[in-house]
Amino acid sequence: MQKTIVTCAITGAIHTPTMSDALPWNPDMIATQAIEAAHAGATILHLHGRNPENGMPSINPAHFEDMLARIRAETDAIVNISTGGSITMGIDERLAPATTFSPEMCSMNMGSLNFSIHPLANRYDTWKFDWEEAYIRATEGGIFRNTFADIKLVAEKMGGAAHNAKFEHECYDVGHLHNLAFCLKQGMFQAPIFLQFVMGILGGIPAEEAHLKHMKETADRLFGDSYQWSVIGAGAAQMPMAATAASMGGHVRVGLEDSLFIERGVLAKSNAQQVEKIVSILRDQGNEVATPDEARKILGLKGADKVSF
């Protein structure tokens, strides 16, 4: 069995500062928690930006610069910069951090969907910042746009000679795997590809073992042995889906972007705590965690010496 890559998604664009005191909501907090997560065993750090004034999701490269420099100086982790931004942003905006800093990896969403988190708004009576409630409620009517034209643009901008980044192909449903297969036939991407099955988001495929098996079987038919795969289990499904994926030969993703909890009803204290828990689970079931350099070989990455931060 190959070694297991552990991705940690540090902050994302879903959760807001009111929801957990542990959620890092400015660049300094994000860098600190990313470094701690890497020291706890995270192989890849999946990064979004936040406005340092109010914690709002940000794609301003200035909000990435210092945190990327700190992470590079203090860890050997692979940096994966999101091109997802948030569902309120267009693809040109969402590309700005990745094109500025030329990371080894960046995320790529493989289809549009009704990505909604509006039920979360009913859990809170007061908010730390005035943007939060309206931002959460607006997702009920929002569409996370990722058209074929958007996908082609990201592939051309980030996958070519200028950046030579590998993609974390985020697939929220079975149809997104078929979208990726079509794009491969068009020559947009080169094997080996890295799939991230995103499970448990309202609007996407539920986080259930039967669905995971179906996603894996579909990927086997479409991509043969020319891919690696990982799983995101949103919310309470985070640890169970990760453990199941690793037992099936896949990789795993944890982090406060995907779940604010360490166990049912108990908020996590940090991203590092979630990494420590999944690393312990993996070792208990016989999986060995990949180092960043081992993951670079598995995924065919360009190397940390070729980034722009």
Automatic annotation (TrEMBL):
Give the cofactors, semicolon-separated: Zn(2+)
Q: What is the top-level taxon of the source organism?
A: Bacteria
* Alphabetized UniProt keyword annotations: Metal-binding, Transferase, Zinc
Q: Which Gene3D superfamilies match?
A: Aldolase class I (3.20.20.70)
In alphabetical order, the GO MF annotations are:
3-keto-5-aminohexanoate cleavage activity; metal ion binding
Q: Does the keyword Transferase apply?
A: yes
| Name of the featured protein | Uncharacterized conserved protein, DUF849 family
Species of origin? Shimia gijangensis
The upper taxonomy is:
Bacteria, Pseudomonadati, Pseudomonadota, Alphaproteobacteria, Rhodobacterales
